[in-house]
Structure formats: structure tokens, C-alpha cells
Amino acid sequence: MYACRTSEIDEMMTFENFYNDLLDLVKKYKNQNIPLKIEQDLENNIVKIFGEKINSLARAKNGLNDITELAYATAEHHPYWNVLYNSSEITNSVLDKWEDSLSENDLSDIDWSLKEIEQTLEKIKRKKSAHS
pTM above 0.85? Predict the structure, then answer.
């Protein structure tokens, strides 16, 4: 029986190895006429797989989910939290109505979020000038 060291196991089980195995799987499905698109950021261990029905709007909504998750997970005491949160809320409203019209309520919500962003930016500017 062959006993290997932990470092050898780590080498065999890297994210890059996973990614290469995934490419083989995607190739198998492409050969069966199931088109898949892969985007990767191997430096950050990110792989995204898109099916044939993906479009720009769906991709934007998907990416916004990641931004929104960061905004929700970031503590409110972070100086940029409110900017990120309200920006994502505005973007979410716009993308939800991309193929429709923004209602008066939507516009009011966007206006409120913009005011929140502006107030936060003023706080950031004041803190920056106080530390200068």
C-alpha cells in the first residue's frame, strides 16, 4: 500500500485540478450538443457555468446577487456599506423592470436610495477631510 504525504494529496486535490476535470465534463456535454459556457477566475477559485439559455440580463441579475450578498453580509459599521447596499437596490429595481417600465413607487425608492448614497458619501468626505 502506498502512503502519501499531505502535501502530495494537496497537490492532487487543487482547485485547478477540479477545474480541469470540469472542463472534461463540459466537453462531454458539448459533444452531446448541450452547449455550456464556462468562465473562470482560478486565482480566486471561481468557476461559473452558463447554459444555452443565458442572456445578458440573466447574467447581470446573477452577478448582482453576489454584490447584494456582500452588501447584506457586510457589517453596517463599514464606511461603504450603505453605498453598496443602496446601489445594489437601485440596480435590482432597474434590472427587474428592464423589459417593463419603472413605476412611480420604483422611482420613489430609487430616489430615496440615491439620497442615502449621497448622505453616506458626504460622511465619507467629512471623515476623509478630518483625517487629512
Answer: no
Residues 92-116 have pLDDT tens digits of: 999 999 999 999 999 999 999 999 9
Residue 49 DSSP SS3: strand
Separation of alpha carbons 110 and 44, rounded Å: 33
Angle at 49 between CA 59 and CA 84, to 5 degrees: 40
Cβ–Cβ < 8 Å for 81, 57: no
Tell me the Cα Rg of the chain.
22
* DSSP conformation class of 78: S
Delimit the domains of the chain by residue range: 1-53, 55-132
Element spanning 35, H or E: none
